[in-house]
Amino acid sequence: MSWRPEPILTEKQVNRAMKLVIADGLASEAMIALTSGTFLVAMLVLLDANNFQIGLLAGLPTFTNIFQLLSVWLVRRFNNRRAIVVISSFLARTPLLIIGVLILFLKSIPVETIVFILFFHYFFGSVAGPCWNAWMKDLIPEKALGAYFSKRTSYTQLFNIVLGLLAAFVVDYTKNHRITAEVNVYACLFIVGGIAGIMSALFLSNTAEPMGRVTTGNILTVLQRPLRDRNFRKLLVFNSAWVFALNIATPFFVVFMMKKMGLSISWIIGLGIASQICSILTVRMWGRFADNYSNKTVIGICAPLYMLCLIGWCYVGIYTREYLNILLLFVIHAGMGVSNAGINLSLTNISLKLSPADESVVYLSTKNIITALFSFIAPLIGGYMADYFSSRSLSIDAQWKSPDWQKVIHLLDLHEFKFLFLIAAGLAFIAAELLITVKETGEVAKNVVRRMMRTSIKSNLKEYFLIGQLIDLHDAFRNLLRRRTEKVAEVENDQPVNSS
After folding, report:
1. With contact defined as beta carbons under 8 Å apart, do 457 and 464 qualify?
2. How far apart, in Å, are the Cα atoms of 301 and each of 148, 232, 297, 332, 451?
3. Is 80 a domain residue?
4. Is 416 left (phi over 0), alpha (psi -120 to 50) or beta?
5. What span, in angstroms and rounded, lies between the C-alpha atoms of 288 and 246?
6. Percentages helix, strand, coil for the chain, rounded to the nearest 5?
7. Local structure of 199: helix, strand or coil
8. Cβ proximity of 79 and 212 under 8 Å
9. Pairing assessment for the beta strands 406-415 and 393-401 based on DSSP bridges
């Protein structure tokens, strides 16, 4: 089998490659679903990992992105992205098999050992990442980027739902019926996930690659080019601030639900599935809107919703009736699914659009390296803050008294992880304001986009009802900010007159 890039790809080759990339996505999603997220955190909790260790493992995938410098060097040296991706992917998935086998036979291994082995999983995955992105940029027609990747995302998320739910039932069933030790089930999940990851690499090995253009010059000088690009630099500032805000709290959602709410794996996975379903139902619409109008506007609509979800986490557990807390969790997960679908898709697309074709690997690597630092630091700070706030709390109540009846309403009750959720919402608000300065190619004025999207929504009311509500939420959010700014300006202007 020849892995050499081809100067020109036929339409048949491109169509076959696009199908193989979807197959790669399904296999990769199986690996991710079984060896990360809820199942990884649950296994760490079972092995008595502390908050700092959980934060460390949450930041490790992004920290290893600094090694994407190696990816840039390999592309410049060999100009064969497929070979780099396939070999790196194979080396990245093997550690998952090792962890599964060690746990299965040794029953329990130190958390430090898992961190050490997973480092190589994330290291080689980071080397493969930029090459894969640049490969896809040249392979997939630019006008179809949003539609194709939203379609691929919907397929992979649907598969994640089925597989995640099945795995959760297996975990809870074996635990409740004491068929085998719970840790053995997680070991098997890692083995199956590792095999699925290797299958993903095999699919990519058969995917055609167009010839890419390679940058020349000193590698450090080349890596400075994205930083000299003023518009791309603004995107880096926004992206870094955004991932920092989210990663302060995101790694601890599952820990909070397990430790503080006492929810089973099936419940946690079920809530995650609700989030994914909402993401699946909206990701294609976000893709069409991003292609037709603006990725920035999609992010501008979704970001306020995600902030509200972060604030909503502060009220989980505040009700005495359990079903009300479950209902609130469901609403939060649904909102996070809708907002994440638009934000993640648009961030990927705008990064690809702002990257020159002949320097896409360099631009994407620089972005990943810089954001990796903030993504790695954030969960470590979050873990430290969770321990710090574990002995501190803040309660704000409203009390009503009358001769016949009295009632205490809990307005706010912060403790440990809830402090993180509120802090993350504040930081996300600051980060969202940084997006305004980014200029997107083909960007349409916001008022035009809103008008055209509302027209589309009115003609497709049933399909786009939820999106219409989000647009109104975005307008209200921006108007509130504008009124607040104008009010402050008025007060400052009137102050000298009043003092005289």
Report:
1. yes
2. 22, 21, 6, 16, 14
3. yes
4. left
5. 26
6. 80, 5, 15
7. helix
8. yes
9. antiparallel
| Positive or negative torsion for Cα 234, 474, 305, 143 | negative
Is position 102 within any domain?
yes
Residue indicated by tokens 């307005």: 411
As a whole number of angstroms, the distance between CA 346 and CA 152 comes to 14
- Is residue 146 included in any domain, yes or no? yes
* CATH code of the domain covering residue 299: 1.20.1250.20
Alpha-carbon gap, residue 482 to 465, rounded angstroms: 26
Six token digits for residue 45: 């909790």
CB 159 within 8 A of CB 279: no
Chain centroid offset of residue 499 CA: 51
Buried-state track 397-431, b at ≥16 Cβ within 10 A, e below 16: eeeeeeeeeeeeeeeeebbbbbbbbbbbbebbbeb
Domain containing 86: what range?
Answer: 11-208+218-389
Q: Is residue 290 part of a domain?
A: yes
* CA–CA distances in Å: residue 479 to residues 239, 466, 473, 484: 24, 20, 10, 8
**∠ CA 215-146-7, rounded to 5°:** 40
CA angle, 162 then 166 then 170, to 5°: 170
Cα gap 272→275, rounded to integer Å: 5
Cβ neighbours of 108 (radius 10 Å) = 12
Written as one string, the DSSP assignment of 395-462 is EEEEEEE-SS-EEEEEEEEEETHHHHHHHHHHHHHHHHHGGGG---TT---HHHHHHHHHHHHHHTHH
pLDDT by residue for the chain (500 residues), tens only, comes to 567 877 788 888 888 999 999 999 999 999 999 998 889 988 998 888 888 888 888 888 878 878 877 887 888 788 888 999 999 999 999 999 999 999 988 877 899 999 999 999 999 998 998 888 888 888 888 777 778 887 888 888 789 888 988 999 999 888 888 777 888 899 999 999 999 999 999 999 999 888 876 666 666 677 778 888 888 889 899 999 999 999 999 889 988 998 888 888 889 988 988 898 888 788 878 888 777 777 888 888 899 999 999 999 999 988 778 888 899 999 999 999 999 989 988 888 888 788 776 677 678 778 878 888 888 899 999 988 988 888 888 888 888 888 878 887 777 888 888 999 999 999 999 998 888 888 876 555 545 555 555 555 454 444 444 444 455 555 555 565 566 556 555 555 555 444 33
Split into its structural domains, the chain has a count of 1
Tokens of 236: 């880096």
Residues 79, 214: Cα–Cα separation, whole Å: 7
